[in-house]
Design a protein that fits this description.
Blueprint lengths: L1 E6 L3 E10 L4 E10 L8 H17 L9 E7 L7 H11 L5 E7 H10 L4 E6 L3 E6 L4 E3 L5 H4 L5 H13 L5 H11 L3 H9 L4 H6 L2 H6 L4 H17 L11 E4 L1 H5 L1 H10 L4 E5 L3 H10 L2
Parallel strand pairs: 1-4, 4-5, 6-9, 9-10
Antiparallel strand pairs: 1-2, 2-3, 6-7, 7-8
Helix pairs in contact: 1-2, 3-13, 5-10, 10-12
């Protein structure tokens, strides 16, 4: 049995891969828990979520009685210094004698999902952004994204930041500003409060992406999106010095703005490869091929 987790700060998707003894076919089942980010949660909190939310879903399933299984946990915030926190919590929640536990970053999840065992450039373009040069086994180079204030080019948070600047500094049409106010209900005062006085301003800015997408046919809005992606290529992808490799991406911003990402890639001299909304399908394929 193989258990794969794709965890963000909000939710964790769990996929169990197992062999059905009745028909001798490989099957998978999906489960969900709250997010498990070791940067913000204690080891005890993580263990309580696994025991309280995941194990009750698994315990009634016959495959859970397997004599051995492997857990592959991929998560946001899974840096080297906090990986033991996740590993220990998983080891106590599951029987360490029968479970092999592997904890990796969400960037490794993206690399394996997008590139499999082949070299390539793998990117995450969601609320935040990240990227790496992958040799088919390991991440060999990573340009630090630096967060939405200092970096995160190509992300939803930076896209939202640039859009608000464009909208309120007299660059957009009056109609677009009117539509934004009517559809979102936000005034400039609301936006200032959410960005400067409330927690998680990056999530708020990224939450504007659906409005931006709905108006991407506006030439100025489209160019703003493309410029955000072009800056991502210039500030990040360029430093891998591998123009011969395809640039692959996972995440909602890459997925929904794929045509703009494609145009930005062409303008900067790169070839866009695979684009996925979520890494899970790619991770299932990867682990089925690398048992």
């Amino acid at each position: 049995m193989i258990l794969i987790a794709d965890s963000g700060s909000t939710k964790t998707d769990w996929i169990c891969l197992f062999s059905n003894q009745e028909n001798n076919k490989n099957q998978c089942e999906t489960y969900h828990t709250q997010g498990l980010n070791p940067v913000f949660m204690s080891e005890k909190d993580i263990e309580e979520v696994i025991c309280g939310e995941l194990l009750p879903q698994l315990s009634q399933r016959p495959f859970f009685q397997a004599t051995d299984f492997t857990i592959h946990f991929y998560g946001a915030g899974c840096r080297e210094d906090v990986i033991p926190k996740i590993s220990s919590a998983l080891a106590r929640a599951f029987d360490i004698d029968k479970a092999q536990i592997h904890v990796q970053s969400d960037l490794m999840a993206a690399a394996r999902a997008l590139c499999g065992n082949q070299p390539g450039i793998a990117c995450i373009l969601g609320t935040g952004s990240n990227s790496c040069l992958y040799d088919g086994e390991s991440i060999v180079k990573n340009i630090s994204p630096m967060g939405f204030i200092l970096g995160d080019e190509g992300s939803g948070a930076v896209l939202g930041k640039h859009f608000i600047n464009y909208l309120y500094k007299g660059n957009s049409s009056n109609q677009l500003l009117k539509d934004f106010t009517e559809e979102t209900g936000f005034t400039m005062t609301d936006i200032i409060n959410k960005v400067y006085r409330e927690p998680l301003p990056n999530r708020f800015l990224a939450s504007l992406a659906p409005f931006i997408h709905a108006h991407v046919d506006d030439l100025d809005v489209r160019n703003l999106v493309i410029d955000n992606f072009r800056m991502f290529f210039v500030r990040n992808i360029q430093h891998y010095q591998s123009p011969h490799l395809k640039v692959n991406a996972v995440g909602s911003i890459a997925y929904y703005f794929k045509d703009c990402l494609q145009e930005a890639a062409i303008q900067e001299g790169y070839e866009l490869g695979i684009v996925l909304k979520s890494p899970m399908d790619g991770l299932i394929k990867y682990h089925q091929n690398n048992k």
